[in-house]
Amino acid sequence: MTNVVKRKGSVETFNPDKIRGSLQKAAIDAGYSVEEKEDIIQEVLDNVDKAISKDKDVETKTIRACLLTELERCEPYMAKSWRRFDNRYKNP
Q1: What is the model's pLDDT at position 76?
Q2: Bridge partners (DSSP) listed for residue 58
Q3: Which helix (H) or strand (E) holds 44?
Q4: 55-91 burial: b if 16+ Cβ within 10 Å, else e
């Protein structure tokens, strides 16, 4: 089981549903329906999960970098939307 080390140092179990939710919001913000991009969402989620599952502990910035790399490769418009949301609400 992989643990996520948050920016402020707290630790929680990796929950792929949190990433799925942010990807769904990015799809909607980019002008798509979740259903239209479900295959992309699942592919990105699977690749992120595969990349981090080999580590016991992973920092949120590592997950973010992996997620953005996968989104850029699969769906640049969603990557742009995800970055916009992340910059506005997560990194004030």
Answers
A1: 93
A2: 4
A3: helix 38-52
A4: eeebeeebbbebbbebbeebbeebbebbbeeeeeeee
d(CA 70, CA 72): 5
How do 3-5 and 11-13 pair as beta strands? antiparallel
More confident residue, 46 or 90: 46
Residue-range domain boundaries for the chain: 3-90
3-state secondary structure of 7: coil
pLDDT tens-digit profile of 15-59? 999 999 999 999 999 999 999 999 999 999 999 989 888 889 999
3-state SS class at 56: coil
Instruction: For residue 46, give both structure tokens.
Output: 């699977």
**40 backbone dihedrals φ, ψ, rounded to 5°:** -65, -45
